Amino acid sequence: MNTGSATLRKAERVYKRSDVKRLFEGNGKSFSIFPLRVVYMPAGSENEDSSARILISVPKRCFKRAAKRNRVKRQIRESYRLNKHLLSQSLKDSSKGVMIAFIWLDKELHTSEEVASKVKIALNRIAEKMNNCQ
RNA sequence: GCAGUUGGACGGCUUGUCGCUGCCCCAUUAGGGGGAGAGGAAAGUCCGGGCAACAAAGGGCAUCCCACUUGUUAACGGCAAGCAAUCCGCGAGGGUUGAGCAGUGGAGAAGAAAAUAACCGCCCCUUUUUCGGAAGGUGGUAAGGGUGAGAAGGUGAGGUAAGAGCUCACCAGUCGUGUGGUGACACACGAGCUGUCUGCCUUGGGAGUUGUAAGGUCAUGUAAACCGGCGUUUGAGGGUAGCCCGCCCAAGCCGGAGGGUAGACCGCUGGAGCCACAUCGGUGACGGGUGGCGUAGAUAAAUGACAAGCACCUCUUUCGGGAGGCACAGAACCCGGCUUAUAGGCCGACUGCUUUC
Predict the structure, then answer these.
(1) Which of A57, A10, A60, A51 is nearest to A36 (CA)?
(2) Prediction ipTM score
(3) A81 touches strand B (CB under 7 A)
(4) What are the residue ranges spanned by the domains of chain A?
(5) Which of A2, A49, A119, A132 is the most buried (most CB within 10 A)?
């Protein structure tokens, strides 16, 4: 798996129901960088894949119309795709995987530039904390 | 030219960088290449079907839905063309309503009275009397009054004590006959003498339930739950859409394979398919014919992000330009409709006003 390049395949997403349950009901840690709330959890050691996997959620109560929800999801996804190299080095050092959930909080649309900067801050913080855990 | 009515089609384009989901090709792998990839409403989930599962011998009642006519269709509560009444508009046009000459019930307030109409009024006769008249009594009268959605068909004339479809003319309604129309109805002639709204009811037509998270296959695999076969007593009990009639089931034995959880695959896109035609039939919805096309299939859910340029719109201008904007909205089994949202411009037909010839 080429995790170094700026791609984002299905293997890099959290899509199994059990994984989602583990992330939210398990001991996932969280913090907020408005308008984002980030929940993350180091993946279990039984998972041979050391890459990061993500999940993006935009609740219906933020945007009633699906077109706006899609817009936000795509902004977050692109921001992560272009900036995930911030995380990969620390993951390689610790040889661990991580599951991350990005949850949108605002009821307004933001510019892509703004979303990208927030995602960068979030990724840097996760990388920092992962290193501290080691 | 301006204002408007109505129908139809559209609802951005190009390039670059980095990506996503199927498909095809190359490659041992890693990967590389090619091509495809949201809408007119994809929305609301309001109707109608296809498809699937479950249930079901059949009949009656009840319940629910539909309701001018004819057509159209797989079907519809849709659509098309018409009919009648009524309302809006100068007009092109648009809105609303629409089974029933059977039976039976109801109608607040207002008003004398809401269907066996006499409160006021009008008139005849009569009694008393202060002999102008007034008061009382027996009757007649639906022309006038005000109330109301509706007042005993309307207007006018004759008639009368006063009046009345009492009679006549015209008009509206009802019924009968004839003519035209597939029909709703229209027209002509004749007869009789005629309230409005609404409930039950009646008539005709129709309706099983649940929705692709349906449902199926695979792997894992322990029960009393399921299926098939054999077999059986009693009609108690259960099932059969709410009730009735009617029908069906069962204890036991043998065999098969199952429930729940998470996962993969099928369902899953070739279909009432789309496009074209100075084609044929039809006023039209629509139907036929000929030719062509291969046209999204995701599964926590792809169809994108960013940048530049061009269109288009608004504002501004020192006429070079500058600033801002660019709708509603995102497939989830598939179709036919309806409803709602929608920046902007485009095309056709028609109406009114105005200008020029």
Answers:
(1) A57
(2) 0.81
(3) yes
(4) 10-133
(5) A119
CA A87 to chain centre: 10
Between A49 and A7, the higher pLDDT residue: A7
Give yes or no for a contact between A97 and A50, defined as CB atoms under 8 angstroms apart.
yes
Nucleotides of B under 7 A from a protein CB: 18-22, 30-31, 38, 42, 262-263, 299-307, 329-331
Q: What are phi and psi of A32, to 5 degrees?
A: -120, 135
CATH architecture observed for domain A10-133 = 2-Layer Sandwich (3.30)
pLDDT band at A48 (very low <50, low <70, confident <90, very high): very low
Torsion, Cα of A108, A80, A89, A51 (10° steps)? 120
- pLDDT bin (cut points 50, 70, 90) of residue A15 is low
